[in-house]
Amino acid sequence: MNRDEGSGSGYAESIVAALGDGAYVLDADRNRVFVNDRLREVTGFSDEVLHGKHPERIVAEGYWDEATGERFRVATERVLAGESDDERVQLTTTLSDGSTVTTETRLTPLTEEAAGGSEGPTEVVGLVGVIRDVTERVERENELARLNERLERLSGFLSHDLKNPLAVARGYLDVARDTGDLDRLDPADDALDRIETLIDEALVMAREPAVIEVDLAPIDLDALATDCWESGDFGDPPADATLVVEEVGPIAADRDLLRRAIGNLLGNAFDHAGDAPAVRVGVDDRGIYVADDGPGLAADERSEHGDVTEFGVSNDGGTGIGLAIVERVAAAHGWTLEIGESADGGFEARLVGAEPTG
Fold first, then answer.
1. Which UniProt keywords apply (predicted)?
2. pTM of the model
């Protein structure tokens, strides 16, 4: 008798064989004794793997990690011990071709009558596992979770960071109304500009990079960086700060998006690089860089790149959106953001992949 004709119930095997989903029968020792054609087709696993002891053999072959194997083992032991009539366990499996699939496996007991006839008790002699591919569902759920998290952060960002410029604008408008001093409208106008900037940045953060519209055109980096520096849109540079733009050719980029990225990096230097920072902007064989001679980031902060650029993360009580915006702009262009130490020991951010058009 070959292994596919083994100790599992013939009736159960007939059902398993006919199922459209991958399915199998395990004996009481967690050996697979019957596997349907669908499971063979999807996994591409050899008979030695399919009929080995589970989860031990699957883990040993590298198709499951230890944590996945342990979840499966606990679920099967509950069924085999008669503690559960229906266990469902979600598993991520690496297939023979190297791809991964997320499945939900339903485990139900396989029983037979114990000695004593039909009136006697039944004992669990194995179980039936039915596997359903839930990869797309899980991806949708994960995407929804990421979207909800982003919306929560955006909500917190807007509700918190819009309050201050709104209060400033209202305050100066009230003063102008009471006194007739129209000069009081200038700071109110500045506050409204700040609100507009915050909303624009929130809109960038609300979209996935793949759906952000990128209108490529040759951009003069010198003119763009100088405009960001002088406009005040990204903060005011310290009185003794200096900007040096290395001479480069035009950069193929979306002007508005690149301006926002460069502006946020310059604003970061204004806030963190000291009272008289020297800031350099240019392009080399690795991409656009913005570097300063300030204190920079500590080594542990540089190693935690993902935390530093995460939306809503700030080490000094700021908005926590500046570097997140830069990373989003880079991704929309097909570039990557790298941060590290500048040649002067300060902070350096680099848009890897950007290059002159000439």
1. Kinase, Membrane, Transferase
2. 0.53
